[in-house]
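Submission checklist for the structure archive. All mandatory fields must be present; incomplete records are returned to the submitter.

[x] Identifier: Pilus assembly protein PilM
[x] Organism: Snodgrassella alvi
[x] Residue count: 329
[x] Sequence attached
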Amino acid sequence: MVLLNARSLNQFRLEKYVVVPLPKNIIGNGNIENHDELVVHLQQAKQMLQSNCRNITVAISQKQTSIQFLDRDENTEYTEEEQIMAELSQYDSMDDVSYDYQNVSINEDGKESLLLVNSKRDDVNILMDAFTDAGITPTQMDVDILAIMNSAITWINIRQPELTEKCIAVFNIGYGETQAIIMRHGKLLYKQEINLGYDHLMQSLRRNYQLTDEEAWEMLYSQTKPEDYNQTVAQPFQQQFIQEIQRVLQFYFTSASQENEIEEILVFGYSNNQAANSLADSISQQTSIPAQQINPILLAQPGDAIQQAKLQQDSSLLTVAFGLAVRGL
């Protein structure tokens, strides 16, 4: 959970944040597998955050949604609503679907781009029931992958506006998987999930140092690590990660037009202070594309109660929550 306050469109203050690890078998493939346990952990996080903020944005998994970017000519005789209804005609009844859409951009040819997101209403209701039972009332729902894109767009707008019109590859490392996104000017061009995440690092830590799950998690985010950590754990993971990046790029290049050649790679969600720069350098060398390793939430000015060192340590876990919070401002 992330609590943001905005001084302006480009100035954020991070008032508070909370990280509560979920035990395995609560969420599986985007679905809630243990409602009661999820409610308990949501309540725990809410209690730790201690906030009365009512402008709450939550995320549904992209595994449970359909995301489309629809080109629209401004001279068309159909209204936006009519075009959206035509796309949703696959459903037997509109009572079975939850959807939302918005205008994203207008290109140089005068064509408007609409972002349409839809999900089965039952999936949305199941998620909303969990938040309701935890005493949380969301004001809006987003999709996790769009929250990552929002974090990327926010970072680009503030730090590197020259990338706005360029084709960017974003890799956000999560617990069990990495979300790969190819985007340009806020539009999703390609997405893929990579079966590689923190869990693989945890397995390596447990195997090499005979640790429990809790001990492996603590070591992963500790400032001090064994002398052979980089050679034994970090470097093999990074090399595997780079191979997965190369595989995603190959899939993209064989499925997309070359007019959207990737010009920058951004890696979110990786925390290894000793080897972060070497990871970006290795990616650049092996892909011939400039690469950066960043965590967008560090754009925000930390509140007085937040320890800078702790935030730096936790920042890799907060990309989705930051993207959701920015949308709510």
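[x] Structure attached
Curator remark: The chain has one domain: 2-328. The longest helix spans residues 229-255.
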